Amino acid sequence: MSKYMFTGHYSNGSWARLVQASDDRASAFDTLLRSVDGSLDVMYWSVRNGAVRAIAELPDAMTAKAVVTAIVKTGAFTSVEVEELLSQEQLHDTLVLARSAEMFYEAPGQAAHAFEPSVSD
Q1: Residue 61: band (very low, low, confident or very high) from pLDDT cuts 50, 70, 90
Q2: Does the pLDDT at position 116 exceed 90?
Q3: What structural domains does the chain harbor?
Q4: pTM of the model
């Protein structure tokens, strides 16, 4: 399973409803995640802008996108973003792979420099 970070911004109407009748949004989100074979690790609220941030475990990116689509369609949020997170071990493996692949990438303009005459010519 992969880790994903969700960042959402509630609409003014959603904030108004929460003020009137606050409920456990972490439990509601975890219920949604469990319906698609995921789970909620943690949820925090930003003091600065009221954004909600959640770290969840999900089977894949398609499932993460389905979760975003399910919550966006309610109109409760003005925006929701999701990004996949890498563990330290996954980052290490990514860097090893990058080292093995770097010799096959030609930077922009690199070929032109290979054909420039040298100053001594």
Answers
A1: very high
A2: no
A3: 2-86 (3.30.70.1060)
A4: 0.81
